Amino acid sequence: MFTRGALLTLFFCGLCAVNAAAGLEAYVSWKNIQWDPDTEQGSIEVHWQSEVTLAGFQFNMTEGSTLNAVEPLECDEGWSLYANNDLVLAFSLQANAYIDPSDLEVGLVTVLFEAPYGTPLRFVDPIFASPDAHEIDINANDVRYVGMPECPGDVYPPNAGDEYVDVNDVLSIIGDWGVVGSQYDVNGDLIVDVLDLLEALNFWGPCG
To answer: Which residues 6+ apart lie within 8 Å of 157 measured at CB?
Structure first.
């Protein structure tokens, strides 16, 4: 069984430090989540958009979820993929396999996981690196809730949404304050309260 320390040493080729590049250069996000409520097994894609070349990355899965495996998308031939405990690790030692800069999103890998309903999937301690082993400055704040819509705050109109989180959603949540089993229960904990309001504000604006 390989250790996290051994993986990091391999990934960064023995470098002692990773230097952060100046300025926001890339975005990483979750896409195309699938989940079976009976088995609690699911899959989710990791998508990437960047101004710089990508040679490797790692991140931890959210507490409460179990990492089962990692499957390639663009990180296919020439890439090494590992799933160990809650750590996802992927890197290429072949220059012709690096992920080139692009204005369009590309799917890097698919993560297979197990988690109960409502578990938030986040990128925990993410590191994405260029071929010279410099850390790429990224936005990795995307969150997906297992079994819930990709934009949980979009609760108005009820049971449909309008792909936008705005004052209508906030007023709907406040209107059902304290109600158990409400259709405006954003975070799926069966009651409408301040946590639902904060979650909606977290997704303020257009969904997607």
So the answer is: none
**What integer pLDDT is reported at residue 22 of this predicted model?**
40
Mean pLDDT rounded to a whole number for the chain: 86
User: Residue by residue, what is the 3-state secondary structure of the chain?
Assistant: CCCHHHHHHHHCCCCCCCCECCCCCEEEEEEEEEEECCCCEEEEEEEEEECCCECEEEEECCCCCEEEEEEECCCCCCEEEEEECCEEEEEECCHHHCECCEEEEEEEEEEEEECCCCCEECCEEEEEECCCCCECCEECCCCEECCCCCCCCCCCCCCCCCCEECHHHHHHHHHCCCCECCCCCCCCCCECCHHHHHHHHHCCEECC
Residue of 49, 59, 50 lying closest to 88 (CA atoms):
59
Q: What is the pTM of this model?
A: 0.71
Q: Is domain 4-145 in CATH 3.55.40.20, yes or no?
A: no
**Taking CA 154 as the corner, what is the angle to CA 183 and CA 176, rounded to the nearest 5 degrees?**
35
The structural domains of the chain, with segments of one domain joined by +, span 4-145, 164-206
| pLDDT digits 0-9 by tens, 89-122 | 999 989 999 999 998 999 999 999 999 988 989 9
Q: Which residues contact 99 (CB under 8 A, 6 or more apart)?
A: 48, 50, 53, 54, 55, 74, 75, 106, 108
Query: Which residue do the tokens 């002692």 mark?
Result: 16
What are the tokens at 21? 């590049």
Q: For the chain, what is the largest distance between any 2 Cα atoms, rounded to a whole number of angstroms? A: 57
